[in-house]
Specification:
153 residues; alpha+beta; seven-stranded mixed sheet; two-stranded antiparallel sheet; 9 strands
Amino acid sequence: MTLNYTQTRLLEKGEQIPYELLLLADETIEIIDSYAKGGEIYIFEHNSQIIGVYILYILDIETIEIKNIAVHKDYQRLGIGTHLLNEATQRAKEKGFKTLVIGTANGAIKQLYLYQKIGFEITGIRKNFFVDNYPAPIYENGILCKHMIMLEK
């Protein structure tokens, strides 16, 4: 399948937040709302369907974070995630930020691989992040997600 990689845009005020996609990368709407309302939501569309999304959230004058990034299950493994990460990197540069941060669970093996493959480096661990901030245990790849692995580019 060939996709046009020029179809990403900022979600406009009043448009429905694509929770169904964001929930692929986070566990609850309440947690998504805690950062989505203060961030910029970018959507990737194909044939008028939202198939990818990421949220940029300003941490300070020099640092911006990708708080959530997700691709519809039917469109994974087509390079869309890599495209969105590269686009987020470019947007961060254009906005004048020096550092782009992303975090993922200790059990998120595919994400850790992808992030490092495109230039992110592990810079820290937020111990017990998922235990302290989520109501129920989360497992990825059969691993209990306890810690948030932080990466920067």
